[in-house]
Design goal:
extended, mainly alpha, Integrase, about 100 residues, single chain
Length: about 100
């Protein structure tokens, strides 16, 4: 049996499919589900802090701040105000810079 016959075929894309492939536009966010119950309070605080840091890191990257050195606390807090998030603490700002550093 030839090796080409054993190779899996790639999934069709929008341009190669015989019928249209449904796309995700317009984008709708997933419905929120409640967090699991029974965890310590610190877990919920850390979880929400990570989500906030991720949102801020994405907003900073979109605005052109690509290096953690460029993301001072003032810059992060002004971005938070711009996207409608409560001002982050120093710990959250540190986490934003850490996310930017590891994304590289």
């Amino acid at each position: 049996m030839p090796a080409a016959a054993l190779k899996p075929r790639p999934l069709p894309t929008q341009s190669t499919a015989r019928r249209s492939v449904p796309l995700d536009s317009p984008y709708e966010p997933l419905s929120k589900t409640p967090l699991p119950a029974g965890r310590p309070r610190e877990w919920y605080v850390t979880h929400n802090r990570r989500l906030k840091a991720m949102r801020l890191a994405i907003a900073l990257l979109d605005s052109g701040v690509h290096l953690p050195v460029q993301a001072r606390d003032e810059t992060i807090r002004s971005t938070a105000e711009l996207i409608g998030v409560h001002p982050p603490s120093a710990t959250t700002c540190h986490m934003v810079r850490a996310l930017m550093r590891y994304a590289r």
